[in-house]
Amino acid sequence: MLRWIRWTVLAQGLGYSSHLLAMLLLARLLGPVGQGKLAAFQAGGQICSTLIWFGIPGSVVYFVGRNRNSVRSVLHTSAFWLVISYFLFAAVLFGLPIEELAAQAAAIQPYMFLFALFVLVLAIFVLLQSTALGLQDYFTYNMMTLIPALALLGLALYQPDTTAPDALVNLVMSGYVIAHLFGVVLSGAKIRSTYIGSVESKVRLLSQLWVGWRAFLSSLAGLLLFRVDLFLVGFFLGLEELGVYSIGLFAAELVTKIPHWSASILTPVVASGDTESVKKTLYLFFSSLLFAMLAAVILLSVLLLFPGLLGAITGAEFQGSQVCLLLLLPRVVMQSGVSVLASNLAGKGYPWYHPGGNILALLCLLVLDLLLIPHFGISGAAAANSLSYVACFAVEWLGFSRINNVNISKFADSFRQYVFEGKRALLSFYNSRFQSCYGR
């Protein structure tokens, strides 16, 4: 497991770093308003794909993690659900009077066909990535992040001939669709050729929905917790400020994504009944917090020593995103721990603590955003985002400790053992290096 965690951190870190670099370069190309449209396109696509799935991908990880012979049945029932739910989604999308809902919504109306296509591709992408995770095929799981990110980076490095704002936005949105389509085609071919065999274990759609609806509540609340402040910033402050805020928010997520992807390995391990799942969860919890705090210190130091760095990369119009990034650092630390605890609870079948933490934090975020954004702008949105994660962390820890019978004494013993094994590993590494250098 540790080998795959290291591989996942490396591959996903490279993938998200490439995605972040692509985003910064594209922001410089698009400007604040264009970046605001792109942020609304991305966030809207993520929320809509979560809505139409109703938690099915979470149940895929759970059922396939318990029995990999169920993969054919799970994919068939998932595809049946997708056909029905996507048809309803498309009917609602193209039937809505978008121009009458809000000025920000009307601004992206010309891209509605691309948006609908992006939602479909993203939905299939999430299903196949969840399947790879349930199968514990971490190579495919990691490649599904790395390949689209590298494709987007290639698009960002490509200098288009046109400078028309609408044409540039349309080109970048098309790039997002095509990049995720690459991941769908490659992963789909790998799963079909490798894992779908003659032996099949049936899983009914109702069983998937029974597990999935709690995963749905948790995923939707968690995604809104990530993204609702983008829409509120756009509503109160406009597309330009939304574009600036999105840079700080997505940059902060670079740090949280690495512990999150590492923690995702836990879900199929816990679901399979591994007897050491609690120990592995605690060790990964300590490692994630340590990594996040170290990364936060490094980010803080770089931003204080080079205050104009982010603006130099993206353009002077995005300089305000640096303050947002600093205010989001407490969220970085707390979310890194929450990801590990939530992955353990997901492997237990999504008990109510899992969605409860995200729902409570989302309610706190909505209240804080409505209070702070009108008075403090994007800085208020960043502060509200960090403060809301206190509630999420508290509920997820309460659920993990109760379901896994982890009291203060057991937690302290695990931490001491973690420190001891960490020292021993460092000493072993030092001795091996010393002997290889000096031949002793």
Could you name the key traits of this structure?
440 residues; mainly alpha; 86% helix; globular
Compute the average pLDDT: 78
**Domain tally:** 1
For the sheet with most strands, the description reads: none
Which regions have little confidence, pLDDT < 50, spanning 5+ residues? none
Distance between the termini: 32 Å
Helix content: over 70%
What percentage of the residues does DSSP assign to strands (E)?
under 5%
Elements, N to C (H/E): HHHHHHHHHHHHHHHHH
Rg for CA atoms: 22 Å
Structural class: mainly alpha
Q: How many H/I helical runs?
A: 17
Number of strands: 0
Shape category: globular
Written overview of the protein:
With 440 residues, this protein is mainly alpha-helical. It has one domain. The chain is built from 17 helices and no strands. The longest helix has 52 residues, at 2-53. It is globular and about 60 Å long. 48% of the residues are buried. The model has no long low-confidence stretch (mean pLDDT 78).
List the helices and strands and how they pair.
Elements lengths: L1 H52 L2 H11 L4 H25 L2 H4 L1 H5 L4 H23 L3 H20 L7 H30 L10 H33 L1 H26 L1 H6 L5 H29 L3 H6 L6 H7 L1 H19 L5 H51 L4 H31 L2
Outline of this structure?
With 440 residues, this protein is an all-alpha fold. Helix content is 86%, strand content 0%. The chain has one domain (2-406).
